[in-house]
Amino acid sequence: MVRLSELHPEEAQHMLGRAALLKRSSFDFDATPWITPRPLPESRIALISTAALHRRDDPAFRFGDTGYRLIPDDIDPAELVQSHISVNFDRTHYQRDLNVVLPVDRMRELADAGEIGGVSPIHFSILGATESFLFEQTAAEIARRMHDLEVDTAMLVPV
Amino acid sequence: MISHYLQRHGIPTTTISLIREHTEYVRQPRALWVPFPLGRPFGVADDPDFQRDVLRSALRLLETATEPTIEDYPHDVPEGGGDGVWSCSIQLPEPEVSDLEAALRAEVDLLTPWYEEARRRRGRTTVGISGARPEEIDKVVSFIVAIAEGSGFKEIPPSARGPNWNHPFPMLVRFVVEDLRAFYQEAVTSQEGTNPPSQQDMHSWIFNRTALGQAIIRIGQQIAADEEPRLKMIRGLIVPEGFWRDEVSWGAAPPGMERIHFIRSSLAYLAGEEA
Question: HEC states along chain A?
């Protein structure tokens, strides 16, 4: 896993449909500027997960939701649930260990060891099943929040 | 796409990639493609060394890449994604089809001590996305039984009132099913043995060996029999690909209706916003 050829044919078809949307789009991928990041030991890093993680008392993600939820870095994993809609991905490891989808402990270890400059006090969560072109406003807002939090770099983590 | 939008607002990104074909189209600035199952971007639970190596590999691209780059992570997960043979160590009775509620409650009773053990050991549970608290699992069962037995998709079954349900009906059906699945899965993986089940193992076990699987299929059949075509999307969200035997899992648009309109209408209907 996971190339499309290794998925169940129906799931692969669904994923191919999403790939075709990307291919057909008029979005100018090459117009995105290249940014040279700061060296890792000076970089404060935030995670963005597409796993639809949120706190139990947060509003759950709705089907087609383009919003985001905040996950404090020191969250008690018991506080988090995952309202992703797909039934076709593996939840067994996430159920045992949050770090499989949101590596908060591993990030902290790298920061403690000085390999990265620091960890954002807030991470971000979205529902990855929503069509990705609809996230322009949300991404802009997340970027603004990251600047406020003095975050240098984002690490994107799909499920 | 998020990576493009973020970069355009001054935030450099690195990303884990699970589906290489998507990444090839999107051309994110820096992507580490990992050959792991969907749902497991860092590979393996409770293996900090493995997770750390994946994380470091993705972060390293921030220092090495000078143009849009996809790097292939060289290691697969140790169990190869888990198509191995797994058998549940908790003995459940043969699922009894004639009394679904009794069969489901008997399974839940047998699994409860193991679920509680897993919850204590891990300090958390993932049950609760429907809004039901883990202590309200009996209401989750009541909900599933009622829908499976034909209470319909107009309102929350009266027998399942009580929990602070956190999703609109009928979409709530999908999350109630997920909560009972999570309860089962956490229970049977409570003994962290040498050969943990993959999601495929879990699908096979649930749909071939448990009353829960039979209940989910019956809900799928209720959806199929309902005159409302927009419900069919829920079936695709509760029965994994390959386990629905009658027709394709995702609802097709009725004749004469464009697919995109059908999907939009389905979303509104499932969210309880459109009759």
Answer: CCCHHHCCHHHHHHHHHHHHHHHHCCCCHHHCCCCCCCCHHHCEEEEEECECEEECCCCCCCCCCCCCEEEECCCCHHHEEECCCCCCCCCHHHHHCHHHCCCHHHHHHHHHCCCCCEECCEEEECECCCCHHHHHHHHHHHHHHHHHCCCCEEEEECC
